[in-house]
Amino acid sequence: MVAILAVTALAVTAGAVFVVLRPSETPAQARTVAPDQRRDMTVGDLARLAPQADLSQASPPPVSPTPVVAATGGPGITLTPPRLFVVSPSTLPERVKQDIARLGHVQKVDSFDGGAVRLSGATLNLLAVEPARFRAWAPRAVADQPRVWEALNRGELVADSAATGRLGLVLGARYQVDAGPVLRVAASASFGLLGVDGLVSAETGRRLGLLPGVALLVNGPEKEVAAMEAGVRKALGPGAQVVVVGGSRTVRTRTAKARTEQVKERAATRATVGRPGSYLELYRKAAAVCPGLSWTVLAAIGQVESSHGRNNGPSSAGALGPMQFMPATWKVYGVDGDGDGVADIWSPYDAVPGAANYLCANGAGQGGRKLEKAVWFYNHSWAYVNKVLSTAQAYARAYP
């Protein structure tokens, strides 16, 4: 958390504050719809439409991607894992970097640009790097993935895996930077740097206005981390922050897992809806998963995403089932709504309360702007938000 706050403050100083995510496709564009599925359901049909528990065969299963063969890391690449991650409130002077490089046990240092972008109210902290230089600092599993470094060389964004899940970033989607370039999220990887949500190339960082030379990585023997940390802190003086790479990562991983388990536990205690005989009843019961959420919002999402189970996907992005969940998101927010012992992404009895669970986690129960933001997190498009909310209003008029 310390590093996140530091980078965010730097971004504000540099004016590098951005909004709003806008991916390149809508649900209607993302899926191929059979001719008999093209008719939109009218609101009057909802009470007569019965959910079906297993529609996994209604659409072809997703095709497994061709495995990526890992590269060797490239000739001449010697990995130097970072032991310390330094974030400074301003560009680090060359003299300070040289002083750190001369400290006992320090074997290598390198500095990079950094800052933050704003994604519809969420902060994304970025490092801007020269791919050939930064590759030696990456974990071996990442260094051996050509797609990561090719994406950076193309000027695209490589998101940290944790940020991808937290913000619901869609790989392959393009995101508009306010008064700046459009960035494509080309890949995700785990870099292991606390507070860093993604990488861009140095050139892209300059276009974004990130601050030059505010981040520093320090390498040396793992057993000498404490001594190196003390020396680095003394050389930096007040204002800069130093994070030990690795130790904080374990805590963060455990905390994330604990949060996931808490979400699942809460959902399991409140998400049982049984097997209602109509979608109308199902949406109404599922809304109880999220106090304050109207069932009409769930009905609108079900209509927009799959015409209430008639077009279950998979989408071109890999979303599945009547509520079009990405499998990774389903692992966190999916529920066993009918109590059969399985949280089935294809079953409306599980998917609809699962959608309520996801919306609630993003503040939908609070209504107003919070509801709009929660629907936006479901699909990163304000046109999508407008369509869902207008459809919800139509359901409210039809079923007062």
Automatic annotation (TrEMBL):
InterPro entries: Lysozyme-like_dom_sf (IPR023346), MltB-like (IPR043426), SLT_2 (IPR031304). It comes from Streptosporangium saharense. GO terms for biological process: peptidoglycan catabolic process. This is Transglycosylase SLT domain-containing protein. Signal peptide: none annotated. Residues 315-364 form the Transglycosylase SLT domain. Gene3D superfamilies: 1.10.530.10. One of its GO terms (molecular function) is peptidoglycan lytic transglycosylase activity. Pfam families: SLT_2.
